[in-house]
Design brief:
Blueprint: E1 2-3, E2 6-7, E3 10-14, E4 18-20, E5 28-33, E6 39-41, H1 48-54, H2 66-69, H3 72-75, E7 78-86, E8 95-100, E9 107-111, E10 115-120, E11 127-130, E12 138-146, H4 149-160, E13 187-189, E14 192-194, E15 204-209, E16 213-224, E17 227-237, E18 244-254, E19 260-270, E20 276-285, E21 304-312, E22 318-325, E23 330-333, H5 338-341, E24 353-356, E25 359-361, E26 363-368, H6 375-380, H7 382-394, E27 399-402, H8 411-420, E28 423-427, H9 439-456, E29 462-466, H10 471-476, H11 486-508, E30 513-515, H12 523-527, E31 543-545, E32 564-567, H13 575-578, H14 593-598, H15 604-613, H16 625-654, E33 659-662, H17 685-693, E34 697-703, E35 709-715, E36 721-732, E37 740-748, E38 752-755, E39 770-777, E40 787-789, E41 805-809, E42 814-816, E43 819-828, E44 832-838, E45 844-845, E46 850-852, E47 856-863, H18 869-875, E48 877-881
Amino acid sequence: MRTFVLLCSVLTIINAEIIDLSSSDNVIWTFVSKNGSMKGPATVPGGVYSDLQKAGIIGDILNRDNDVLTRWVAFDTWTYTAKFQVSIDDLASRVVHLVFDGLDTTAFIVLNDHSPIGAVNNMFVKYVFDIKNKLKAGENVLNVTFLSPIMAAQIRSSRAFAAPACVPPGYNGECHVNQLRKMQASFAWDWGPAFPSVGIWKPVYIEKYDGAVIRWVTTHTKRVGVDWSLTVQAHIETSKKVTKIDGVLSIALQVEGKQMLKKWKQVNVETKADGTVVEEIELLISGNMIRLWWPNGYGEPTLYDLHVHYTTASKKEESRKDIKIGFRTVEIVESPASEKLGNTTAGKGLTFYFKVNGYPLFMKGSNWIPSNILPELGESDKATIDNLLTAAYDVNMAMLRVWGGGVYESDYFYEKCDQLGILIWQDFMFACSMYPVDPPFLNVVTQEIEQNVLRLQHHPSIAVWAGNNENEVALRGNWYGTSKDFKKYEAEYIKLYVDTIRPIVETLDPERRYLVSSPSNGIESEREGYIASNPYDPHYGDTHYYNYFADNWNMNTYPKTRFASEYGFQSLPSIRTLKTATSNPDDLKLNSKFSEHRQHSPNGYSYIENQLTGHMKLDVNDFKYFEKFVFYSQISQAMALKTETEVYRQGQADWYTMGALYWQLNDVWQAPSWSGIEYGGRWKMLHYFAKTFFAPVLVSPRQLVSDDIDVYLLNDRFVPIIDAVITVDIYNWTSLTPINTKQFPGDADALSAKLQDIDMNYWDYKKEQIFLRFSLDAPGVKSSPNNYVFPVPLKSIVGLIKPNITITVANIVMRRKEKLEYTVNIEVDTIVLFLWLETGIKGNFIDNAFIVTEPTITAKFVCSKYVAPRDLQSSIEIQYYVN
């Protein structure tokens, strides 16, 4: 079968043809275990767990403890076999390559008559094999045999051990994953199960041509006065046996007004030993021909079509790549903090902030883990990527950190981030381990870094590269008992991240910053030999902060930082989501084997309980104890993250804190975790709260130890706030009418946080009887959410009673683009805390978890398919907090 396929991260049309080897009526794939007892039809791209489920050999891998019960899969050897036809004409091409975009992970490849093609050992690499002399007319048989990743890791570890040996026992995982260039979380993590999968997880095809193909395109934009310079580099590839490339390279850029800027050059050069050559074309573009690309919340993420063509001298073949690019500048500024903060304690050290298009922007966002524990599903499930990224966009996020224990995400993921204006902090895939540095390992790492930088570099959403997750601090902090061999591990750390990875990144993408680790002290860590004496120094770089012992609803407990790139607290997913993992009602108890199995964080439930009971009343004898524990855990998580995030946003004023990326956005199974979005897409209370605590304009109060209240005005806009009025309503818990209202003037510079000159206390009232509501009215500010201070823990408040709540759904249904919008009217007779609306109907509430201080409020529900308003009304269930 002849067809066209997607190559790399962009659309490629090649006159030289492609034989697609994905599963189809013409290409039949099967799988079989080592002893032949397990076999069936296979889907390619895919993976063994997916295929075993489809064949009915194993059940739902996320049901109950199936992660452990199906572990035998990862100990076996699996062979994937394809049978396909080629014609005599197909063999006539000068170059015939077999291309695997992704193989997971350690495998041997054989084509016809037991002819070996090659061996692979890195799931993050595209493999290209010359099969010109091995392909035959008629039927061909391709075999890919995958070794057990568990056994492959053990074998490598016996030769080149690197600490730690295993994940903690509570993870129910496997050992030595750091030996494999594979998704590190596939051997288990504190938020996810172990599924050490194997398979052909990305497309496979045969490429045949006479000339050459454009394998990658990188783009380099630079401001030249008011204009822009664009350098396009085409990474052209042919066979190793072809020594010369002769043709024409051309580019065409569509700019404003649908104008097309074109340029071409003659290419007549000798190839490198690997059959590759890099050719570039530079364009100078007038500044009035383009608009800038901006992150979410700061402007439009404008993209422009760039077409890159290579045509052979004979003009018989063309290779083409069509990509979208953006024009923006992004830099990390590490300059003396005294320039911002003066000669103070805060002014010691260096700043750490992102300057985008010349402006210092506070980065609001979260951390992204793989969208599915099975990489082939994370790669192919565009709907889940759409839902998660749109959810991040909807709550004012401007940055996501693609965490280093997962995968380099799909091309579609980065294209979507480009479109939504979501900047990416891109870790390389090394996390929470020391790593070997023997030559074979460094060789495959080199290939991995080169390919992924080349694949992703053109995306305007990529903001920064980072060498690893938490490995500097792990080495300095002796997390894995490495102190006795510190010098050895230090040297290996530098050899991998500094001597091997950094030169590749800086050569291929010199415009972007490469951070050796996260967290780190940035430049200061480098000055100290790359392993800082205190990688958590608040005067430098970025930090990861977790503290489950302090009162995390108290703003005074959090440390200072220049940039918070990880922080978070656990909660349980909703009962509805948990029920997708078990049908046994006895599992839905805190002390059940099911619940214990799902909690991978040591002492996780105790930490949740301590935070929860520190602020809320919960009777262990309540017959709805587990249901309330789940709901209250989400309240506790949301309030703690709200508190900590606002501390960091306030910190822009006195510490020049310039980023808050909480851990974590999404989930891979139905279990307690730090996520704001449950597996399956349901928003936790945290994600709804993020819409408020990441609001562009927010009044943010802080209750001090003295019980005085500082009030900050946070302004993430390019214009100042002037002549604002900050209203403070004091309520008691028994009435919807404020007992006192005070108003104060407010102002804030553009892109700033400012402590307001407000003398605020409530000493005339009993703290347990009142709470405070803060609101803003300012010229030019369309909206700013209310904010609140609860002076004492909720379990100590007096006067909060059980409310009477009436919910009706209006009969008028509005169409909003591809969605239907319903208006939900809510009437109450008293204060309601954390009013939560839930329905089994597929869709979502735009806002939720309301602090209700008015007799009537409205909520909006959106869905794709029509449902009768009365049916929606009858389906809505509510929860709220009451002592």
